[in-house]
């Protein structure tokens, strides 16, 4: 998989991809992550990428020219399955969306900034708009990092345990059950007996019941999705 991220602040987004699982995925050749400075595509002598909006309104808007040039330059090199724009008014990102994106080959993520981007870019190039939650960030870089991390870890071979991602929270609209490790008893606090039983079916049933109960208690909104009510 290849992910190209277009941003006005490349320094913010470089660090998350230089460590841990995402770095190993790149080292193994399972993922390519390329960060592009939008200012490199600006034809303005001062490398400006924003301008005032028509019709008044507070704040600046990301200009059409550098974004169009950046996207067209990348599209001339390969086909892209999705061109994603990170924006507060996009669809809320979740595990199911991460699963879908992990099946793609090439993605562009355009990081939003200021008061947004010229609407003509959204109308002409953007195929998917994504929000990471009902709040506003300074820019779309952190959102792009979240999307990239969630997607790349699902690629075959990225995690050493191939089944690990399939049992994460939010798969099947359930939170993960409680987890324990050695020792079996610590200062009077004991691991549930069922986990020590060696009976795989009992353990699986317990974990499933616990996942349902935790979801019902902690995330009733998610529990409704599990029941098919949403």
TrEMBL record:
What EC identifiers does the entry list? 2.1.1.228
In this chain the tRNA methyltransferase TRMD/TRM10-type domain maps to 1-225
One Pfam entry for this protein is: tRNA_m1G_MT
Q: Which Gene3D superfamilies match?
A: 3.40.1280.10, tRNA(m1g37)methyltransferase, domain 2
Q: SUPFAM superfamilies annotated for this entry? A: alpha/beta knot (SSF75217)
Function of the molecule:
Specifically methylates guanosine-37 in various tRNAs.
Can you say what this protein is called? tRNA (guanine-N(1)-)-methyltransferase
Q: What is the lineage of its organism?
A: Bacteria, Pseudomonadati, Bacteroidota, Bacteroidia, Marinilabiliales
